[in-house]
Specification:
Layout lengths: L15 H20 L3 E2 L5 E3 H4 L12 E3 L5 E4 L4 H11 L7 E10 L11 E10 L4 H18 L4 E7 H10 L4 H11 L2 H15 L4 H11 L5 H11 L4 H19 L7 E3 L13 E7 L6 E7 L14 E7 H11 L10 E3 L7 H13 L4 E3 L7 H10 L4 E4 L2 H6 L1 E6 L5 E5 L3 H17 L1
Parallel strand pairs: 1-5, 7-8, 12-13, 12-14
Antiparallel strand pairs: 2-4, 3-4, 5-6, 6-11, 7-9, 9-10, 10-11, 14-15, 15-16
Helix pairs in contact: 1-4, 1-11, 4-10, 5-6, 5-10, 6-7, 7-8, 9-10
């Protein structure tokens, strides 16, 4: 084994610039979630293996399992959804339904690592438990739209479909319920392997050529959402579950639009399958046009999963934001915070003035500024300013003996070298004005 320090493949170290972006994403998402009344929840990274097993379909092979020193069979959290179902069953007497919850944390999968896909990854989940109303589904769509907009995305679209639409396509093509599962799995790969690849998978599953043609035609429908739904309603005439799904999807879209979701931010996409087997109703994914990354988030309605743990079924709808994918896309597009954590660098003019300089740092921190101070009063001032500039701190505070005698401080803009002189009593207001103007310029 190599003695060279290295992290586990598929698991990343986040150095300060990356971690600052990660924290920005989490803070932005949490703010939007709480604006809609979602409450925070945290569950352990480890679950009993039996909690996860039998809930994930083909994805179960990716679970990290092990046996601890006590012989207990454990598994690392695969996602935030199955632990939620366990929590609701375990604490149902303490939860008031419908319950809106959000959870942010790491999950683990034995993935084949690639860009945007890691073995340790972070998700931000939101779910509404205890409501079968299409308004709940619509609220999930509204939250994801507001959240991506708040992060600065302007080129995303949310793909919408319904599990019973895809099921109806399979049924009207002559497949029975057992064979419909192969359709879900194959269609879920459409964007990766293309039409020919899906056709091959369906054929290998025993689907006839005529049925393949019909399935691929219907899942490939595109256009205005109402036009796609009209075409599906005509093609799936006679299939009551599919017709009910179309009505349900129309209701979700109407409620989402009433909540302010623009029509250019969603589209009905019959090809959307979502691979996990527990989905029962509406499914969704949000994607960006560029850079190519796959979905930024996904989810849908899963009305039966919690019933596997509880003594009653509880309708539930939710989505999971992929924080790692959001991070990678935002980093590539230059979105989010840049520069140092600190906004102000307080210099040390000399040992004699260090107490006065440190007092200014205290005053600014108490006023809410992010402040870094020089640690060596014997280091020449020019080098201190160079250090602050290299770290990306926008402003430096200087107070020498002349400024101290006059009751003033100098604030230097480290980007353009301009200097602003303030009385000590006006320092806080002066810095607030400078930072506000800089933020406004950056936003433009």
């Amino acid at each position: 084994m190599s003695t060279k320090p290295q992290n586990v493949k598929g698991m990343r170290d986040l150095l300060p610039p990356a971690m600052m972006l990660r924290q920005h994403i989490i803070k932005t998402l949490s703010t939007v979630f709480e604006r809609y009344g979602f409450e925070p929840l945290q569950t352990p990274v480890l679950e009993h293996a039996e909690t996860l097993e039998g809930k994930l379909g083909d994805e179960e092979r990716l679970i990290y399992r092990f046996e601890d020193h006590g012989g207990r069979k454990l598994a690392m959290r695969y996602d935030q959804t199955v632990p939620l179902a366990r929590v609701v069953a375990q604490y149902q007497s303490q939860l008031q339904m419908p319950w809106r919850r959000y959870a942010i944390g790491a999950s683990y999968r034995g993935e084949r690592t690639q860009r945007g896909r890691y073995r340790e990854f972070y998700q931000a989940d939101i779910d509404i438990i205890g409501s079968a109303s299409p308004v709940a589904d619509a609220e999930i769509i509204a939250v994801l739209t507001d959240a991506l907009t708040a992060l600065g995305f302007d080129n995303f679209v949310t793909l919408l479909s319904h599990r019973q639409i895809l099921g109806g396509i399979a049924r009207v093509s002559g497949l029975d319920e057992a064979a419909a599962g192969s359709v879900y799995r194959a269609i879920d790969k459409l964007d990766k392997i293309g039409v020919d690849g899906v056709r091959t998978e369906l054929t290998n599953s025993g689907v006839s050529a005529a049925a393949c043609d019909q399935i691929l035609h219907l899942v490939s429908l595109t256009g205005e959402s109402n036009d796609v739904l009209d075409a599906l309603a005509s093609a799936l005439a006679g299939d009551e579950r599919a017709q009910a799904a179309i009505v349900n999807l129309r209701g979700i879209i109407a409620a989402a639009e009433a909540m302010g979701v623009p029509s250019n931010r969603y589209t009905v996409a019959p090809r959307l399958a979502r691979g996990l087997s527990y989905y029962t109703g509406m499914v969704c994914e949000a994607v960006v046009e560029s850079p190519p990354m796959g979905s930024l988030l996904g989810g849908g309605r899963y009305d039966d999963l919690i019933g596997l743990f509880a003594d009653k079924s509880l309708p539930t709808v939710g989505i999971a934001f992929g924080l790692d994918r959001l991070h990678d896309v935002m980093e590539e597009l230059g979105m989010g915070p840049r520069g140092a954590m600190a906004e102000v660098f307080v210099t040390m003019f000399s040992s004699d003035l260090s107490a006065a300089n440190l007092a200014h740092a205290h005053t600014l921190r108490a006023a809410g500024f992010k402040v870094e101070v020089a640690l060596d009063a014997n280091e020449r001032l020019g080098k201190q300013l160079q250090t602050a500039d290299r770290r990306g701190i926008p402003y430096a505070l200087v107070q020498g003996p002349d400024e101290l005698a006059a009751g003033e401080v100098v604030v230097r803009d480290l980007k353009d070298g301009t200097q602003h002189r303030y009385t000590v009593s006006a320092l806080v207001a002066g810095l607030q004005s400078l930072l506000s103007a800089r933020h406004h310029t950056t936003q433009e």
